[in-house]
Amino acid sequence: MNSTLLNGIKASSLVVIITDYIAIVGAYFLCYYMVNYYLSSQIHIVIVNQWVQPIIFAITTSIFILSVGLYNIKLRATFSGIVVRIFVCVLLAYVIDKLVYLLTRFNQPEHFAEYFAIITFCTLVVTRYLLSKTAYQRLGERNILVLGSGERAKVIEQYMRRKTDRIGLNFIGFIVMQGDSTDGIKNEQKLVLEEPLDVFAVKNRIDEIVVACDERRNVLPNESLAICKRQGINIKNIVDFFEHETGQVVVTQVYPSWIIYGPSHRYNQLHKTLDWLFNACIALAIFFITWPFMLIAILAIKVEDGFSAPVLYSQTRVGLDGKPFSIYKFRSMSLDAEKDGAKWAQAADPRVTKVGNFLRKYRIDELPQLFNVLKGDMGFVGPRPERPQFTKQFEIDIPFYNQRYSVRPGLTGWAQLKYPYGSSEKDAIEKLKYDLYYIKYRGFLFDLLILLRTTEVVLFGKGR
After folding, report:
1. SS3 assignment, position 204
2. Pair 214, 181: CB distance under 8 Å
3. CA–CA dist 409, 451 (Å, integer)
4. Could you list the residue ranges that cross the membrane (predicted)?
5. Would you tell me the crossing angle of helices 52-67 and 11-38 to the nearest 10 degrees?
6. Where are the alpha helices (DSSP H) in 68-188?
7. CATH 3.40.50.720 domain locations along the chain
8. CA 151, 156, 159, 161: dihedral to nearest 10 degrees?
9. Cα(203)–Cα(362) distance, rounded to whole angstroms?
10. How confident is the model at residue 423 (pLDDT cuts 50, 70, 90)?
11. Which of 27-36, 76-85, 206-215 has the highest mean pLDDT?
12. pTM for this predicted structure
């Protein structure tokens, strides 16, 4: 199984998953007995079918909960935001539930599905609230000792500074090592060891040691590290630790060997054909679901800009192996948006029309790229393709940027889920960290997770 998925299934996540299942099954039987008590003269549910509905409802609700990020223990959302997400999940599960029962024609009391959905929503909200008042997030918490306090160790302070970033992690301290940069960590607990590392680690119940010293040669206490490993203490370098905990790659601290000895993604013709068939089938399925929205988008653009105005526009982007291709979108900017040449798209770009703003918010402007998927220029999951006007400079300024060309670009990607709208070279560097992580760990399950989590982007505007 993909390590990214395993990374997400922690003790605290399992508590939430199990609690949700108990809440849904409990809601079903509460509803079952309430309805049969008050409507006993009406139809009674056949005992054979009694477990069908809660199982279907629990599975579909859990899938939707996963897709909107509610199983992410590091989700940054207020409780009211969580309630809204639960409501959306239950509503979607209710629609699926009704469709299943219409197709199977199982006996069911009148309005049972509606009662069940309402009670499920209430129980899920209550259980989530009760969980928020407990310390469940500390289950499986690991004591971390960082070997180093300089430039390499500083990435933890820079990119894992929020409380949510450190859920499940308890940093005991950062050991000052010989050769560490003085321009290192500022606000973390620095330690100067006065005893062997292995003695300190055992005494403080360290679970994991992160090697993040700036200078390793003749500096690392290898004997103590070997003893720690024999004691069952996990030893990781800063790059692997950061990848595992944040889902991104520290571009500035990766050596060429990371690329050279990393996994290869060159596939044979059969795999390429199957990959295209899979993406093409999804593209056609989405088209049959979304064509009414596409038609409304076309009409809205025509009404706003006149019936002679173009609806679609195409741009040259860089794809697999650095080859250019034309990408298609619904036009969301004014007709003279690039009269002065290519520019970065901004988060609140004044060139975007009123209709275009709505299309962008819900990613409707991206739907014509289904044609790119059918052509084979793109897949559903992968790094977002950039314009050649920008990539030429990126290849010079940003280390390992051309590694993005080793996989097919996608409609959605890991970077789109994890990072907001990019509008500068700095943003390009940040998004590359997630793209490289995806390239390293990509696989069917990881792609499936990204597709599910894209629901969160579409419904709640995350990553715009």
Report:
1. coil
2. yes
3. 14
4. 12-35, 55-73, 82-103, 115-131, 276-301
5. 140
6. 79-104, 112-132, 154-159
7. 141-246
8. -120
9. 53
10. low
11. 206-215
12. 0.80
